[in-house]
Amino acid sequence: MDISKDMTAAPRTIRRDDYTPPPFLIDTVDLVVELFADSAKVVSRMAVRRNPAAVAKPADLVLDGKKMDLLSVSLDGRAAAHEATPETLAIRAVPDRFTLEIATRLRPQDNAELTGLYKSRDIFCTQCEAEGFRRITYFLDRPDVMARYTTRITAEKSLAPVLLSNGNLVERGELDGGRHFAVWEDPFPKPSYLFALVAGPLDCLEDRFTTRSGREVTLRIYVRPGDVPRCDHAMESLKKSMKWDEDVYGLEYDLDTFMIVAIDDFNMGAMENKGLNVFNSKLVLANPETATDLDYHSIEAVIAHEYFHNWTGNRVTCRDWFQLSLKEGLTVLRDQQFSADMGSAADARIDDVRRLRAAQFPEDAGPMAHPVRPDSYIEINNFYTATVYQKGAEVVRMMHTLLGPERFRKGMDLYFQRHDGQAVTCDDFANAMEDASGVDLAQFRLWYAQAGTPDLKVEGRYDAAARRYTMTVDQSLRRTPGQPDKKPMHIPLSVGLLDGAGRDLPLKLAGEAAAGGTTRVLDVRNPRDVFVFEDVPEKPVASLLRGFSAPVKLQAPRSEEELTFLMAHDSDPFARWEAGQQLGARLILDMVAARKAGKPMVVPDLFVDAIRRTLDDQRLDRSFIADAVTLPGLAFLGELMPEIDIEGMWAAQQRVRGVLSQQLADRWSSVYDANHGSGPYRFSPEEVGRRRLRSTALSYLSTDKGEAARRRAVEYFENAKNMTEQVAGLGVLAELGGAEGDAALGAFHERWKGEPLVLDKWFGIQARTPTGDTLQRVKQLVDHPSYDRKNPNRVYSLIGAFASGNPVQFHAGGGAGYRFLADQVLATDRFNPQVAARLLAPLGSWRRYDAGRQTLMKRELARIVAEKGLSRDVFEIASKSLD
Ligand code: PHE
Ligand code: ZN
């Protein structure tokens, strides 16, 4: 008999509808944190009172707490009756108002979960979102309990010369025995998830920023000694972000210092702790030798994102974790707007959409599909998802589209005016937008509640006699887990009409007195809506979903000629790019079908011609050209197929690449030669575009794998002047394989084995190589001396890259990839459940594959669920994936 099952109770599901206000409030927290080589002692003194808004009046105060040793509890200075369980501490029969003092002891150096207080190399640091504070001390660890914090840190001076926490430094000094202390005071009440403490040997880059009302802010970026020269780009990004938020939203920084700390061991990208952002070092450190253009871009965007949280997240925070998108969706939209303003708006939008389609659309179509505002969870850490972040940003962007920029800004102003200092809900945000603008968002709110990607079918009919163009729009939304019936959504559909010369026609909808503008946002609200355009002089070509005005899957019966016409002429750059992607996707899917039917795969001349014209178009900038000649990715293509045919998609995509490579060989060569570039590295839109276009050409020139291609790739790699070029060259060589590939990988490792962030790239490139025996190589790399299973960046760059970034190889080999992933998930789950759960996601999409693969993928999920002592994180994903 197996009794172990009875010992592991099924994890509890938390529901949004069960929300009640906290029975107690905590006004102030005085923390004393003493750090030692092998432990930390925390004393927390809290001013607690009953919440007048509470619905119940319990006798006991029940605090959250986990994985600590409880040393003592006192209430108003006297011993207090209390009882601890593994996840709570109950203080018996408390008065209405009291001071509670709790002492705990922790072992940061043994904390491999990287949540709570832990050590990254020799640096002590904290990660409290979402529920990490309860691993530091017992607390009401929920975002609607906001307190003012004072933090006193002590440590041996030689171990931790730098002592940091939130807010302003109010005191520091020496202690006996080689120890010292610092006291930090944060004047702003905040939820516990925004608490942070960092201590260790750190150097810093310092700068200043004067806010527009004249506040002098000291900016500091703390890094490991020696890394200061790699902080300039992060610092520039921070200053740009601070200025931008003032200019665009009128939002100023509110403390005297703003600090960023870079940490090597971090589960996520970065964290917006008040006044003390903690970052994964890959999102801070950059110089041209070690960071790629993409790294530079990500650093700029994430520094901005975390900085913007100071208002959207910190000053106004979330009432409960179901409202996570209140801060994340809004802040992602803000960082997207910032990126659009820093470079090319068109490229930025194309990037947003690519990411949404590659990560969020599959999530919305899979077993973990959830609304932007989820209704339930087992483990909140599993809900830091593309849906909450990326789709959440699309939802706020749609409000921006429906209201227009001025009224949207008014809505933001009203939101801050009403809710500064509060913990609120997504509905509060929508209310502010609605009240400030007068735009009715009642139906629109369904975007927060209904999961799934709506399908939109658009058909147009031209009546020459009546000079009328009629657009019929049908919407539908498939069922998702727990949501069998869906209501029609309010979808902003941005459209234009082009005449035969490719010019925008003025648009006049039936009933309007005069034409107004050449782009119109149609309010789609019903299962079927019909829009009639009048005074249309000729049969137009419709440009649909301009700027990707809604996160939907669009189907429109447009001919290939119409799509190539839009590719050449659409005045909306997103729609122009999109026409090419639609055409490419249609073609590839046709080829997949042909291949399946045993027929030849044919690439029509029309497509080759369209790509040639794009390459020849002198008016387009290089980044856009690179975007436009890049074929749709496998994740996006897979979403368009009823059953994902990996081999088919890959074969078809390779065939198209081959044909483009051959037939446009002269173009790729001249693009490659013309974009050689000279002078020192600059991270400017022009230079980034040039490098991208050149490496795109290189990759087309390498598709035939011939001698000349190999020679060119080797030359490119060996002459690389920066990491962007090195990585591009290495990727091509790794795919070419053979002696050249091995030599390049060897040389790269030799040169960069002392640079963790560069080594991650080395692991990642090998894991993502679609050719050769990649799984075998990945398995060997797990045993490589440079591999570190405890470092999340390393794990994501090897295991994550293979399982999520290399569908061709992950799904090959009769299930060997699935088995490997499951083994890695189980091994990782023993010490870092968050990372384990993130790795697991690709197995959840089993329904999308053929019967054989379904069986194999489910088998691994079942093996995981059956494991004893599984974390809540992995249990939730694995079990829901099997449902
Ligand atoms: N709140 C962080 C952000 O998006 C992400 C994060 C979540 C980091 C949980 C760590 C832990 O800015
Ligand atoms: Zn965020």
UniProtKB/TrEMBL annotation:
<dbReference type="Pfam" id="PF17432">
    <property type="entry name" value="DUF3458_C"/>
</dbReference>
<feature type="domain" description="Peptidase M1 membrane alanine aminopeptidase">
    <location>
        <begin position="234"/>
        <end position="444"/>
    </location>
</feature>
<dbReference type="InterPro" id="IPR024601">
    <property type="entry name" value="Peptidase_M1_pepN_C"/>
</dbReference>
<keyword id="KW-0645">Protease</keyword>
<dbReference type="GO" id="GO:0016285">
    <property type="term" value="F:alanyl aminopeptidase activity"/>
</dbReference>
<dbReference type="InterPro" id="IPR038438">
    <property type="entry name" value="PepN_Ig-like_sf"/>
</dbReference>
<keyword id="KW-0482">Metalloprotease</keyword>
<feature type="domain" description="Aminopeptidase N-like N-terminal">
    <location>
        <begin position="50"/>
        <end position="194"/>
    </location>
</feature>
<dbReference type="InterPro" id="IPR035414">
    <property type="entry name" value="Peptidase_M1_pepN_Ig-like"/>
</dbReference>
<dbReference type="Pfam" id="PF17900">
    <property type="entry name" value="Peptidase_M1_N"/>
</dbReference>
<keyword id="KW-0031">Aminopeptidase</keyword>
<keyword id="KW-0479">Metal-binding</keyword>
<dbReference type="InterPro" id="IPR014782">
    <property type="entry name" value="Peptidase_M1_dom"/>
</dbReference>
<keyword id="KW-0862">Zinc</keyword>
<dbReference type="InterPro" id="IPR027268">
    <property type="entry name" value="Peptidase_M4/M1_CTD_sf"/>
</dbReference>
<dbReference type="InterPro" id="IPR001930">
    <property type="entry name" value="Peptidase_M1"/>
</dbReference>
<feature type="domain" description="Peptidase M1 alanyl aminopeptidase C-terminal">
    <location>
        <begin position="561"/>
        <end position="882"/>
    </location>
</feature>
<keyword id="KW-0378">Hydrolase</keyword>
<comment type="similarity">
    <text>Belongs to the peptidase M1 family.</text>
</comment>
<dbReference type="InterPro" id="IPR012779">
    <property type="entry name" value="Peptidase_M1_pepN"/>
</dbReference>
<dbReference type="Pfam" id="PF11940">
    <property type="entry name" value="DUF3458"/>
</dbReference>
<dbReference type="InterPro" id="IPR037144">
    <property type="entry name" value="Peptidase_M1_pepN_C_sf"/>
</dbReference>
<feature type="domain" description="Peptidase M1 alanyl aminopeptidase Ig-like fold">
    <location>
        <begin position="452"/>
        <end position="556"/>
    </location>
</feature>
<dbReference type="Pfam" id="PF01433">
    <property type="entry name" value="Peptidase_M1"/>
</dbReference>
<dbReference type="InterPro" id="IPR042097">
    <property type="entry name" value="Aminopeptidase_N-like_N_sf"/>
</dbReference>
<dbReference type="InterPro" id="IPR045357">
    <property type="entry name" value="Aminopeptidase_N-like_N"/>
</dbReference>
<protein>
    <recommendedName>
        <fullName>Aminopeptidase N</fullName>
        <ecNumber>3.4.11.2</ecNumber>
    </recommendedName>
</protein>
